[in-house]
Amino acid sequence: MKMISLLKKSVLAAVLAGFCHSALAELHIIIPGGPGGGWDTTARSVGEALMKSGLESRTSFQNMSGGGGGRAIAYMIEIGNKKNDILMVNSTPIVIRALSGAIPFSHRDLTPVANLIADYGAFVVRNDSPLTSWQQVIEQLKTNPSGLKFAGGSARGSMDHLVAAQAIAAAGIPGRQLRYIPYDAGGQAKAGLLSGEVELLSTGLSEALELANGGQARILAMTAEQPIADYPEIPTLQALGYDMSFTNWRGFFAAPGTAPEQIAAYNDTLQKMLQTPEWEVVRARNGWINLYQGPQEFAAALAEQEQELKQVMLDLGFIRN
Amino acid sequence: MLNRDTLGALIFLAFFTAYAVFAWQIPLLPFEEMDAVNSASIPKVYAVLGLMFSLLALLAQAIKRQHSSGDGWPQINRRSIGQTAVLLLLMWVYTALLEPIGFLLATSVFLSAGFFIMGERRWRVLLLASVPVAVVFWLIVTKLLGIYLVPGELWS
Amino acid sequence: MLDGILLGLSTALQWQNLLYVIAGCFVGTFIGMLPGLGPITAIALMIPITYSIDPSSGMILMAGVYYGAIFGGSTSSILINAPGVAGTVASSFDGYPLAKQGMAGKALAIAAWASFTGGTIGALLLMLAAPTLAKVSLSFQSADYVALMCLGLTAIAAFSNKGTFLKAMMMTVFGLTLSTVGIDPSSGTERFTFGNTDLLDGISFLLIAMSTFALAEALSNVLKPEVKQSAGEQPMQIGSIRLSKAEVKEISPAIGRSSILGFIIGVLPGAGATIASFMAYAAERNLAPKALQEKFGKGSLRGLAAPESANNAACTGSFVPLLTLGIPGSGTTAIMLGALIAYGIQPGPMLMQDNPDVFWAVIISMYLGNIVLLILNLPLIPYLARVLIMPKAILTMMILFFSLIGVYLVSFNTFDLFMMIGFALVALVLRLLAFPMAPLLLGFILGDMIESNFRRAMMTSDGSLSIFWDKPLTLGIMLLAIVVLAMPLLSFLRLRKAAI
Q: Quick check: A318 and B104 CB within 8 A?
């Protein structure tokens, strides 16, 4: 009898302890995707840097994949300020999906906190490809706009497609005629390029660098505004004379209606984190490029990107007016 | 007259008809409307295939019935049906309660109620078999693996 | 190459790496047995741990977890018909009947040995032919994948014994239709979502597998309680884990063939352990003498050994494109790729030259992982099989709980759980109406890949169907698929003729 009552008491204690523990304040990050994906890596790396440098005592993560990120946004809007210290990581696809209607929300439904890193679009060919420069690609496309096939690791109408279409539109070729072949994932798209099924690959710069450094492919151009310090030999589209740039940013959002002091506090912590050596380890490891933008700057950049992409998507027939 | 195989074929016929209706209504994006093969193509193929097979099955049944009486129904007693139905209901309740009252409480209730339905009546055994399982599982998942489990929205 | 092997051996045999392999296998097996947490989650969770140790050790740990998870998945597949890992679905077709017949020990032992052999043969092939194989992995294009998937679909023939062909086909098409739910990846259109945001990403494989296999099985055991045993009878036997010489002789050729088949399929970036296991199952059934063919699906030893060796060989094969080209063939290898990059290692043709220690360490550790798994798991089998002897009430509730929570841990979406309950009910009804469940999963798994590859092939060929017979490779596989599929159709027509 005594054993059982002791057992009952300890179980009760454990249960209560569990409840108490989880009610303590801590930085909680919502990830709109599954484990191992881009958002997940970003969130966990930021958490790692924050904890290792001592800026935060505890960060926890919650994966909420589904609905292309829409579920996590819905959660943020609903729960938002009922809990302390929740942030959500997100990136450019939220703008694209909001425009295409894939998610019933937009960045305006949340409060932008800060942008941390940026990735850019890049165009890759096989090492043995007859195409040696982006200008050559444009020349060929001018005579036959659908003559070259572009691979991408996401569906038609998503980022890889949009970036490529925008790039050729900047050279005067109608983006609608771009021949984009969608693959299920980045890895498959790479296989498509290397197996000869397509001539070009439109992907993120970090992925393109993997291929190029492995010696199997060449990067013809990328969409940053300025050349990258680590790889100055990769030409930007701007440098080649085409007025086009595209940034895939990754940053944090808070629930709508979060107090400005709270936003400022987050920014303070994040800015400090960017200076720490622990962050530099994480950044270099993942091949990211720092691009800090505070809340106002971030919100403005989002609005600008939204307008730009809306036009591109209208031109391409991805959205009706 | 209505044997197992006919009923099965009829159910699928109904399903594939519904699927076909929706397949023909798939909204196409503007740039797709011109394509030969688009988002609706493959679903239409599946719908047609499905309808074909269900109709063939019904046909086969019609032919076979002239020769045999068809498969019998399995023997099920009323108590088992009741138990199964209650278990399904219990799962539904568990899912509905999982986020509001939290993993630990919901799981303990689910497991104890389940054992009860299955015939276990000793309440000590009920509790001892359900609560520790829930707690251990919770510990492994949240502490060891670092996955976040809702602690119960009603009280946080 | 010999110094490479020696280098790899010396790295892999360091005591801490051995410890990592063992730890990885244990953790992986445990995680694999829990339905929801599959190899992907397991490895993703391991990554932060691996940052603090050096790259070769990290990869060794992850490889151990990967293989452990596959074996754990086989265990739950065989014992409770709850395949939590897509690659182990085919193992349940004959593994579960064997367990129900009181031969759980033998089934798990066969799974262990078949997996070991498959993985070892795979590792051998990897060592001997990795760079050449890289060319193979790039020789498949979208049309070839379509042909391969069609060949995989012929595995339905394996479930159509005498008169259930039409039922199997209906279930297959049902599975195919389920795979169309969600946003179409090729174009972004919403299909069959009825405005529900939770359906935008489609239905997950785990959800369907758990509800139609685990939940429906558990519930149908409640619905149709097995005949009560009289007091004098033995409770459910586990059976010994020893295999007789005759049995070993019977399954060895099947294992050999399936390993090679599985490895080659694994090398292709667009196909993995799942297709490999289904195709090996189908191949062995078609190659078996008529008398043994009938046993498939009812507890055939070959039917269990084939998919088990194929899926391990395929896992090993999937390292080829990863290491030699930097192309991940599956979610799991994608995460490993991320880890490699994070360590500063560039997979690709240069890997063998720039970081030979990592390359060979990974390969040797795969060998080790296989051996460790065998040594660890064979003695565990009697304990694992004890699961079956649990009182029915507890076993049922545990299965219900693990299935539900398993899916919840992946998506954290209670909508998915409600869907599961719905599917379980449907599956229960279908089982009562004598429909086979396996073709449903087959259709669902292959549906995705068939459609996206087909659309891609049509896009690259500008809408011309000739792409499916232009290349000899594509044509060859398609002809093979047609031949294999035609066989049961012919026998079905013959039966109908006899009935009229």
A: no
- Pick B64 or A112 by higher pLDDT: A112
A217 has which bridge partners? A126
Predicted local confidence at residue B110, as pLDDT: 92
Mean pLDDT throughout A89-116? 86
Terminal Cα distance for chain C, rounded:
66
| Element spanning A61, H or E | strand A59-63
Phi, psi of C466 (to 5 degrees): -65, -15
Query: How far apart are alpha carbons A300 and A293 in whole angstroms?
Result: 10
Q: Which long-range contacts (CB under 8 A, 24 or more apart) does B117-126 make?
A: B117/B83, B117/B86, B117/B87, B117/B90, B118/B83, B118/C222, B118/C392, B118/C393, B118/C396, B118/C397, B119/C393, B120/C393, B124/A4
- In this prediction, residue A18 has a pLDDT band, given cuts at 50, 70 and 90, of very low
Q: How far is CA C269 from CA A198, C152, C319, in A?
A: 16, 16, 10
Tell me the one-letter amino acid at C368: L
A258: its two tokens? 């979060």
| Cβ partners under 8 Å of residue A54, min gap 6 | none
Q: What is the mean pLDDT of chain C?
A: 81
Q: What percent of chain C has pLDDT over 70?
A: 87
Residue of C30, C40, C179, C180 to mutate when probing chain B, most B C-beta within 10 A:
C180
pLDDT of residue A21 exceeding 60: no
Strands (E), C104-183: 182-183
From CA C97, how far away is CA A269, in angstroms rounded?
58
Across C443-448, average pLDDT = 87
Q: Using only the alpha carbons of chain A, give its radius of gyration.
A: 22
Distance from chain centroid for Cα C57: 26
Q: Distances from the Cα of A80 to the Cαs of A43, A87, A111, C485, in angstroms?
A: 18, 9, 10, 55
Q: Which of A4, A5, A8, A11 to mutate to test the interface with B (most CBs of B within 10 A)?
A: A11
Q: Compute the distance between CA of residue A44 and CA of residue A46 in angstroms, rounded to an integer.
A: 5
The two tokens of residue C106 are: 């033998």
pLDDT for residue B156? 56
Taking Cα atoms as reference points, which of C396, C393, C419 lies closest to residue C407? C419
Q: How far apart are CA B109 and CA B96, in angstroms?
A: 13
Domains in chain A with CATH codes = 23-118+249-315 (3.40.190.150), 119-246 (3.40.190.10)
Question: Quick one: pLDDT band at residue A148, thresholds 50, 70, 90?
Answer: very high
What pLDDT is stored for residue A15 in this prediction? 46
In Å, how far is A105's CA from the nearest CA of chain B? 20
* CA diameter of chain B: 68
Measured between alpha carbons, how far is residue C432 from residues A315, C180, C225, C443 in Å? Answer: 54, 26, 14, 21
What subunits touch chain C, counting only 3 or more CB pairs under 8 A?
A, B
For position A16, what pLDDT does the model report? 45
Helix (H) or strand (E) holding C50: helix C39-50
Quote the minimal CA–CA distance from B82 to chain A in Å: 32
DSSP state of A319: S
Top-confidence range, A41-50, B99-108, C335-344? B99-108
pLDDT at C313 > cutoff 60 = yes
Burial of A52 (0-12, 13-18, 19+ CB in 10 A): middle
C120 class by beta-carbon count within 10 Å (0-12 exposed, 13-18 middle, 19+ buried): buried
The residue behind tokens 């094969």 is C317
Residues for chain A: how many in total?
321
| Residue carrying the six token digits 């070729």 | A173
Tell me the residues of chain A between 93 and 112 that have a Cβ less than 8 Å away from chain C.
100, 102-104
Structure token digits, residue C155? 């595995």
d(CA A62, CA C408) in angstroms, rounded, equals 13
